[in-house]
Amino acid sequence: SQKIEQNSEALNIQEGKTATLTCNYTNYSPAYLQWYRQDPGRGPVFLLLIRENEKEKRKERLKVTFDTTLKQSLFHITASQPADSATYLCALDSSGGYQKVTFGIGTKLQVIP
Amino acid sequence: EAQVTQNPRYLITVTGKKLTVTCSQNMNHEYMSWYRQDPGLGLRQIYYSMNVEVTDKGDVPEGYKVSRKEKRNFPLILESPSPNQTSLYFCASSARVSPRTGNTIYFGEGSWLTVV
């Protein structure tokens, strides 16, 4: 069956360092991979999308890589700040023409001042 | 402002008492969905709709109903709520899939539902 794995344990990182979050998947051939940010008790907010034929995508301090051979995406936040503390969700989109996006469980990031 | 609005935000109800959670979006999106989020299980899709009068089951549809009579509204109905439906619910919408945007999803703020 299809499976998405994100580190379920929280990631603690010192302010100013680069945070790297991992998303692995099996039995899936996504056309797109997305990352969302979710604050406690709030709805997820879209951050970045990367297509299957792209290796890397950047947006300000954020960088996403997508390796379809390894079936893995890495999400980097450079120069991390306490305001970056949140849960980050990986989402796989097969884009079969309907709204079927599957979400990972998320990784909680805590940036320590 | 682009928004997905759901109500109520917080609700405590009793087993068996029918309830409806409303959802409305102002982005003219074709696709709408309902998710529930539970600790350790993440977001799971309950139902989705590709357009008016077109709905289909997601991964966990049991105990829920939906309808899509207008493009902007997609209410979630719990005909006979049970305690295992206690959860955080999210309504979401997205535009038709395109090569540029994929299925970028916009979420509402969530509805905390407790069934006692």
What secondary-structure arrangement, pairings included, does this model have?
The complex is a heterodimer of chains A (113) and B (116).
Chain A (H helix, E strand, L loop, with lengths): L2 E4 L4 E4 L4 E8 L5 E7 L6 E7 L4 E4 L2 E6 L4 E6 L8 E8 L7 E3 L3 E6 L1
Parallel strand pairs in A: 2-11
Antiparallel strand pairs in A: 1-3, 3-8, 4-5, 4-9, 6-7, 7-8, 9-10, 9-11
Chain B lengths: L3 E4 L2 E4 L5 E7 L5 E8 L3 E10 L2 E4 L7 E2 L9 E3 L8 E8 L11 E2 L3 E5 L1
Parallel strand pairs in B: 2-11
Antiparallel strand pairs in B: 1-3, 3-8, 4-5, 4-9, 5-6, 7-8, 9-10, 9-11
Question: What report would you give on this structure?
Answer:
The complex is a heterodimer of chains A (113) and B (116). Chain A is mainly β and 113 residues long. Chain A contains no helices and eleven strands. In chain A, strands 2, 4, 5, 9, 10 and 11 form a six-stranded mixed sheet that branches. In chain A, strands 1-3-8-7-6 form a five-stranded antiparallel sheet, with no helix packed on it. With 116 residues, chain B is mostly beta strands. Chain B is 0% helix and 49% strand. Chain B is built from no helices and eleven strands. In chain B, the strands form two sheets. In chain B, strands 2, 4, 5, 6, 9, 10 and 11 form a seven-stranded mixed sheet that branches. Chain B has a four-stranded antiparallel sheet with strand order 1-3-8-7, with no helix packed on it. In chain B, a hairpin with a 2-residue loop joins strand 5 and strand 6. The termini of chain B are far apart. The chains are: A mainly beta (113), B mainly beta (116). Chains A and B meet through strand 4, strand 5 and strand 9 of A and strand 4, strand 5, strand 9 and strand 10 of B.
Biggest sheet of chain A, open or closed, and with what strands and sense? Answer: 6 strands, mixed
Instruction: Compute the average pLDDT of chain A.
Output: 90
Q: Whole-number average pLDDT of chain B? A: 93
Assembly state of the chains shown: heterodimer
Structural class of chain A: mainly beta
Which shape of chain B, going by the Cα principal axes? globular
- Give a quick account of the main beta sheet of chain B: strands, pairing sense, barrel closure: 7 strands, mixed
Helix content of chain A: under 10%
How much is the radius of gyration of chain B in Å? 14 Å
Number of helices of chain A: 0
> What is the N-to-C order of secondary-structure elements of chain B (H for helix, E for strand)?
EEEEEEEEEEE
Helix share of residues of chain B? under 10%
Based on CA inertia axes, which overall geometry of chain A fits?
globular
| Structural category of chain B | mainly beta
Radius of gyration of chain A: 14 Å
